[in-house]
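Reopening: N-acetyltransferase family protein still failing for me.
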Amino acid sequence: MSKKIILKNGKEIYLRLIEKDDLEGIWSNFNEVVEEKIYLPVYTPVLNQWEKNSWYKDLIQINNFCIVAVDIKLSSPKKIVGQLTIEHTQWEAAKHVGILGIIVQKKYRNLGLGYFLIELGKEIAKERGKKKLILSTFDTNKQGIKLYKKCGFKIVGTYEKQYFINGNYVNEILMENRL
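Support: Ran it again with your exact input. Result attached.
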């Protein structure tokens, strides 16, 4: 499966399911967002190869999935410019629910990439039997909340002062989309 999309700036990007060779690009993106200190409740980048490989092995073995956004004009690992994961919840009675996570490189934001990733993720999740997707984000992530709403997510709750980041408390917004 590979889907070509055109971003608002005219760049061609390909969306496809993850391959093992994508790991360095995926973790490079993750670590870049960790360094921004505004979108993830994580302080420490993932550098350990065993941890990266374990994540991939678990992803594949338990039928979670990850879509990568590839800029074929770039070389590895920089060619992976975004990713979306949909993972199972830990509860057996919630097998119909998927947890959505998304990361887009800073220079590829606000160009439509997040929208395309989410829409394809919803499609695949539905094909794999998911009835609902959930996600959480910081209340300070106004662009993200706007995007999630555009993709059909609704705010269903808030955890107040859930995280302490950069010297401030941040609320966690809970959202869902019934497929």
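The first strand starts at residue 2 and ends at 6. If you still see a failure, please send the error message rather than a screenshot.
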